[in-house]
Amino acid sequence: MRADPARQVIHAVDVHAAGEPGRVLFASGLGIRGSTMAERLRYCENHLDGLRSLVLHEPRGYPGLCSPLIVPPADPSCDFGMIVMEQGGFRPMSGSNLICAVTVLIETGAVDVSEPLTTLRADTAAGVVTVRAEVSGGRATSVTFDNVPAFVHALDAPLDVPEYGRIPVDIVFGGQFYVQAQATHIGVELRPGNAKAIIRAASALRQAAAESFDVSHPLHPEIDEIGLPMIHGPAVTPGTDGRNAVVLPNGAVDLGDPRTWTGTLDRSPCGTGTSGRIAAKHARSELAVGDRFVHESMLGTTFLAEVKEETTVAGIPGIIPSITGRGWITGIHDLIVEADDPFPCGYTVGDLWGQDADGAVG
């Protein structure tokens, strides 16, 4: 390709972790500022939202895509930092995205690799996460991370959701705040062919929870929103302990307008959501320290979760969740933005992106 100094080129490595796609970027040259990961995340929100929409939106992205941004760590004891770009904004932590990032770091040689086990420390806006990757022939064949402490904000709290009635929900933290509810209480069946009904219900569930519960992490007060919903149910596949569906928002939700109850299904079993779920099960005495829980996605892929130890977060009882999964590299790309491209930050259209995406640019 002819060299053009006006052309912007972004190098990316695409991965999927248990089915959930992640487009891994290295943040060299972006000038991200901040002395903590929380400050760096806030900088990204204020200055790099155009990059997020460029990478995730059409014509270079698609609704199911996320992107872990690998940045220098703020904590000098860590090997790398990670800020997560999702369709709904920048996020402090994501398990599937961490697995994608670690897979790329190891398989591209961006970090020192030891076989059969490589240990790394990841700096995130939710805290430091220790990662252990099994490596064979230069490939990461399994990735386990000890997540930030997970805890319960509320158990079986009644929540009124338009069209779905009063539902008992759990409000939990596993790297992000979640509202979690049983599929039977909402009246949806957790199967891939039922995706539209699941997305509709989960989007309304999340918005209702966001409007009804005030949340704030006691150590990271900037994490103060219920960002994601999980609908969960009993095991479907032999050898698993439960199935779940997490829905990632892709636009504003208005409880008064059901046309806006849209989003995208997480293809993986969801690492932070699974962390929150086993925290709730531990709080109910359904899981003890050392117990394992195999969580299944809508695709039938699994994450292995374990209650590694008990802990407290500013006096709140919690656990250290351990999550194991795997990532697979699917492509290496140079994303190009020509100087005269009419869509330098991408666009969204309502056929894929929801009711409010009326040809929106960026």
Automatic annotation (TrEMBL):
Superkingdom to which the source organism belongs: Bacteria
Organism, scientific name: Brevibacterium casei
Keyword tRNA-binding attributed: no
Pfam families named among the record's database cross-references: Pro_racemase (PF05544)
EC number(s) from the headed UniProt entry: 5.1.1.4
Enzyme class, UniProt record, top EC level: isomerase
Catalytic site positions: 94, 270
PANTHER family referenced in this protein's UniProt entry, alphabetically: BIFUNCTIONAL TRANS-3-HYDROXY-L-PROLINE DEHYDRATASE_2-EPIMERASE (PTHR33442:SF5), TRANS-3-HYDROXY-L-PROLINE DEHYDRATASE (PTHR33442)
InterPro entries for this protein: Pro_racemase_fam
Similarity annotation: Belongs to the proline racemase family.
Keyword set, alphabetical order: Isomerase
Designated name of the protein: Proline racemase
